[in-house]
């Protein structure tokens, strides 16, 4: 099943490249901007016509406490990623914290439905195999928007295979159960990010450039600092709560100071997973 998902993503990307358009003066970090903008438009259309209505229906039909438990469950699964990748990065302290979170939330939190680790002071990290490759010196390569999956880079795209291998839900049988769990994860995470869509539309005249710059800044923050990949998201708002760039100014994402295990995600409970592959214009992948 893991091989099927990887092959499908790569095949879709290869077919889409055939229709790639060009940009006269692309950014050095985005040499295939024409293709990426085409993919962004495709993903954004899919998100607005399919994912957003489904996510709104899910948020309307499922009570907030139940959504919190679903988010906590997938956050607990995400700690498997964090533990494995912190070990690969030789971040022993962070790996021990991840293991403690897993143990506490799995056994005391009924499989992770309740997050006891965050109130206990154990920080929530945000790691994946792409970050691990980056910390070991693998260059990120050009920015790349994947069909359905959204923003990435060449290095992070290779890291998707490692993410699938680490993900424990990939090994659940029968396959329809695993795919159903993945579908719930997509819808639940998109529901948590509905307000982020409004922020993106208000913050930038060019949502594509804003998304690209925010993604690359976030990845750089995780690789070069961020207290072993702490889960705080970039801060795109001024102190008065207004979005930077709402007046058309050039927007540069500002990584927030590491939070002590508190997840800064719109409409999500504490300890919820960081959607490393989730932005309007791209669907979530395993985070």
Descriptors:
54% helix; two-stranded antiparallel sheet; globular; 10 helices; 4 strands; mainly alpha
Characterise this structure.
This protein has 10 helices and 4 strands; from the N terminus they run αααααββαααααββ. It has 287 residues and is mainly α. The protein has one domain (2-18, 30-255). The strands form 2 sheets. Strands 1-2 form a two-stranded antiparallel ribbon. The radius of gyration is 18 Å and the shape is globular. The model is unreliable at 6-20 and 231-281 (pLDDT under 50). It comes from Pandoraea eparura. This is Putative phospholipid-binding lipoprotein MlaA. Belongs to the MlaA family.
What is the number of E strands?
Answer: 4
Q: What is the spatial order of strands in the main beta sheet?
A: 1-2
| End-to-end Cα distance | 18 Å
What's the rounded overall pLDDT mean? 77
Domain module tally: 1
Structural class: mainly alpha
Q: Give helix % range.
A: 40-55%
Written as H for each helix and E for each strand, in order along the chain, the element string is HHHHHEEHHHHHEE
Main sheet specs: 2 strands, antiparallel
Determine the strand fraction and express it as a percent band.
under 5%
Radius of gyration: 18 Å
Could you list the spans in which at least 5 consecutive residues all have pLDDT below 50?
A: 6-20, 231-281
InterPro entries: MlaA
Protein name: Putative phospholipid-binding lipoprotein MlaA
Pfam family, one: MlaA
Region (Disordered): 236-287
